[in-house]
Write a structure and sequence with these properties.
The protein is mostly helical. Helices cover 59% and strands 0% of the residues. The longest helix is centred in the first third of the chain and has 21 residues, at 3-23. This is NADH:ubiquinone oxidoreductase complex assembly factor 8.
Length: 86
């Protein structure tokens, strides 16, 4: 398998596992969704960082569910504020 094929195999593997990981964070996803929905109701005002606590709880839960290692055993770190992996 080419290097490109191996990469896409890992990507497909992660995408297939996504629903299971997300299901592990149902309470956090619901809390975030309720916050965003309440902000977009008539009279609500959605703005940046309004639901930051709920989002951070969801992100932390999801990161814990996914784990911080890729299939090759390399440690993954998020660059603060960029969403980029390093």
């Amino acid at each position: 398998m080419s290097a490109n094929g191996a990469l896409w195999g890992r990507v497909r593997s992660r995408l297939r596992a996504f629903p299971e990981h997300l299901a592990a964070c149902g309470a956090e996803a619901s809390a975030y969704g309720r916050c965003v929905q309440a902000s977009t109701d008539p009279g609500g005002r959605l703005r940046k960082d309004l639901c930051v606590r709920e989002f951070e709880a969801l992100r932390s839960c999801f990161a814990a569910a996914v784990g911080q290692e890729d299939p090759d055993g390399k440690h993954l770190r998020r660059a603060v504020g960029t969403g980029a992996l390093s």
